[in-house]
Specification:
mainly alpha; three-stranded parallel β-sheet; 3 strands
Length: 146
């Protein structure tokens, strides 16, 4: 499947591809386009839009896009993913930054990658994937899952 969102990704738009590749669609392709082109390109290409306004896999009912994907794909039974979602939410939703102590750290790291690599979103996915793997392992460990 193809997935599409806005270019210049930071927290949610990098965490979501990690989640999708690991737990939903290992062969996923990600497309990043100008904010105003997302829905048109999604329609033309059949790509699934995420982390844009007015879509199922966006910020809905207080959830960030990562949390919306967990809900849609029935991943809420994974304690590590639920804990990771709390951290991603805190890092992505500025009003909730203090809702998870790790949120500020993830925010800083994700935005640091943005400063280093600008709009090279595919490179950011590649470089940040091991960080999300490690953070997920930590979340599993702290949730009592081996």
């Amino acid at each position: 499947m193809k997935w599409i969102t806005r270019e210049n990704a930071n927290v949610d738009r990098i965490a979501c591809p990690w989640l999708i590749k690991r737990f939903v669609d290992p062969d996923a392709e990600f497309v990043y386009v100008n904010r105003g082109d997302v829905m048109r390109v999604a329609e033309d290409s059949g790509a699934i839009p995420y982390d844009v306004p007015n879509v199922e896999l966006g910020h809905v009912d207080g959830r960030c896009s990562f949390e919306s994907i967990l809900l849609k794909y029935d991943l809420l039974g994974d304690k590590g993913l639920v804990r990771l979602a709390e951290i991603v939410h805190a890092a992505d939703v500025s009003a909730d930054l203090n809702s998870s102590p790790e949120g500020a750290g993830l925010y800083a790291i994700a935005h640091g990658f943005g400063l280093l690599h600008g709009t090279n979103d595919h490179l950011k996915i590649e470089l940040e994937t091991p960080m999300y793997d490690a953070l997920y392992a930590w979340c599993l460990h702290t949730s009592g899952v081996s």
